């Protein structure tokens, strides 16, 4: 069982897994979004779902920013489903280009919020020191609606010194379904750059 991440980097993995399946690799994929499901179907990867299996052997996913193994994810608003699948995996492998590596976590944190709770959640998030912006859909009037029917706030916290503490605070805000801080979840970070690929072990 292989968790299939979301985003432009995870898409390369799905494509490569599809080629391996064509050559006889026996796997079933667990998509984390509409996008990863569609790509996997195109690539010919047999699919299943998290609630239909006993466990997940490995999940492979991208990230928006990586600092010392801690991640910010959710640029594609898929972080809730990704966190469920990635956290369930025996091994969680992150694939990024080296532009995603940073010294400090500063990327805005995507926070998925139940639509009716938007104003109260925004107020609570401001109390935590963040500046939230409702993510706009861009090519539709109104906000991005997630696969769980919620909205996403991109929250600027400046430099995040303690991601575990911030993650716990965000998780305790009523109406927050999930946030994009992935703390102590990644087992391995695979980094691609002009000089090739290197692997950073985290756990
Ligand atoms: O919701 C989307 C995900 O968390 C992506 O894995 C993340 O945004 C990285 O995407 P990309 O590889 O396209 O930069």
Automatic annotation (TrEMBL):
Pfam families: Rib_5-P_isom_A. GO terms for biological process: D-ribose metabolic process; pentose-phosphate shunt, non-oxidative branch. GO terms for molecular function: ribose-5-phosphate isomerase activity. Keywords: Isomerase. Its EC number is 5.3.1.6. InterPro entries: NagB/RpiA_transferase-like (IPR037171), Ribose5P_isomerase_type_A (IPR004788). The keyword Mitochondrion does not apply. GO terms for cellular component: cytosol. PANTHER family: RIBOSE-5-PHOSPHATE ISOMERASE. NCBIfam families: PRK00702.1 (NF001924), rpiA (TIGR00021). Belongs to the ribose 5-phosphate isomerase family. This is Ribose 5-phosphate isomerase A. The lineage of its organism: Archaea, Methanobacteriati, Methanobacteriota, Stenosarchaea group, Halobacteria.
């Amino acid at each position: 069982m292989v968790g299939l991440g979301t985003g432009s980097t995870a898409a390369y993995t799905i494509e490569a897994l599809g080629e391996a399946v064509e050559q006889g690799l026996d796997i079933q994929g667990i998509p984390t979004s509409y996008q990863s499901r569609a790509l996997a179907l195109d690539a010919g990867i047999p699919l299943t779902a998290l609630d239909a299996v006993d466990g997940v052997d490995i999940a492979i996913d991208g990230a928006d920013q990586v600092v010392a193994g801690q991640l910010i994810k959710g640029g594609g608003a898929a972080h809730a489903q990704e966190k469920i699948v990635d956290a369930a995996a025996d091994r969680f492998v992150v694939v990024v280009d080296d532009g995603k590596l940073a010294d400090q976590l500063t990327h805005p944190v995507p926070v998925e919020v139940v639509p009716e709770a938007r104003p109260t959640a925004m107020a609570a998030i401001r109390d935590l020191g963040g500046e939230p912006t409702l993510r706009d859909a861009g090519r539709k009037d109104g906000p991005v609606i997630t696969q769980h029917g919620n909205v996403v706030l991109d929250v600027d916290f400046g430099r995040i010194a303690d991601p575990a503490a911030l993650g716990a605070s965000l998780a305790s805000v009523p109406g927050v379904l999930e946030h994009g801080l992935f703390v102590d979840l990644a087992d391995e970070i695979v980094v691609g750059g002009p000089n090739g690929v290197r692997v950073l072990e985290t756990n």
